[in-house]
Amino acid sequence: MDRLQEIEVFVAVADAGSLARAADHLRLSPPSVTRAVAALEDRLGARLFNRTTRRLAMTEVGRRFHESARRILADLEAAQQEAVGETSVPQGHLTISASVTFGRSLLSPVVCRFLDLNPRVTASLLLLDRVANLVEEGIDLAVRIGPLPDSSLIARRLGSVRRILVTGPDYLRRNGTPANLAELKAHRIIGFTGLMPLREWRHHDGTRQVSTPLAPSFEVNDALAALRAAELGHGIAPALSYMVHEEIAQGRLVEVLADDNQPELPVHIVYPHSRLLAPKVRAFVDFATPSLAAEFDRLSRPKDPGR
What we know:
The protein is an alpha/beta fold. It has 3 domains: 3-83, Winged helix-like DNA-binding domain superfamily/Winged helix DNA-binding domain (Arc Repressor Mutant, subunit A, Orthogonal Bundle); 92-158 and 267-300, D-Maltodextrin-Binding Protein, domain 2; 163-256, Periplasmic binding protein-like II (D-Maltodextrin-Binding Protein, domain 2, 3-Layer(aba) Sandwich), CATH 3.40.190. It is 41% helix and 23% strand. It has 10 helices and 14 strands. It has helices spanning 3-16, 19-26, 30-44, 60-83, 100-117, 169-175, 181-184, 223-231, 245-249, 279-300, and strands at residues 49-51, 56-58, 92-98, 121-127, 141-145, 153-161, 163-167, 190-192, 200-205, 208-213, 218-220, 237-240, 254-256, 265-272. Strands 4-3-5-14-6 form a 5-stranded mixed beta sheet, with helices on one face. The protein has a 3-stranded antiparallel beta sheet with strand order 12-7-13. Strands 1-2 form a two-stranded antiparallel ribbon. A hairpin with a 2-residue loop joins strand 9 and strand 10 (208-213). It starts with a helix and ends in a 7-residue tail after the last helix. 29% of the residues are buried.
């Protein structure tokens, strides 16, 4: 078995989590799969899997090599498609990841419009309130809000958002408006775990970030549920500015502590580095970037309530 086949076998085993399942997928015998993995380990001089009678798990070296190996195979597939003239038309299945609220409100319509224009492409939209590993989880691209510590990803900026606090006007009529963070601690807090995972509000005091502990009276892991409770007057909830732009404009929600000077959080569309980018990914990035950038530009313009 040559080096490329060994890499293909390794990736199949890593993805399947089993030598036997990888053998079935590749239509090879289990002993040949075992030999291919052993030969690759010998060639690399490192163990790629820890094996027991009941479990197969990648080592740290295996996880690093898996990411590189998948890129190698993806580049090879793209090169083969280019050689036969298939790269000019977007086609195949596209997997996209985003946070739950962003995916529902802004990204899903963009994906649907893209599919209308590209009938040879299908798509899965994975809405996750966590940072997914694009390579390990087989995701083509994602939209991420906040700083990007992973420099191995290619990023295109879409805009920015702010972390804010909001509540319904009825709540403020009944309970008064907090003038500072010390007064905020005396109010009823609705905790959205996606923005307050440690039950604290992070804010800037001059040039440094400070955290103020808060004790939510109601806590939920869904942004829309938290904002609905705030709109109904049950307390003050955290939000990202794009989530509540229309509600504030219509007077259904009011921003609290608007002078808190929260820094802007960048929003990017990101995808793994590849020398030959798949046409479906390139086409979606080129389509979605101006559409979402225009939407963020619209959402960044303040509206007065009642207009």
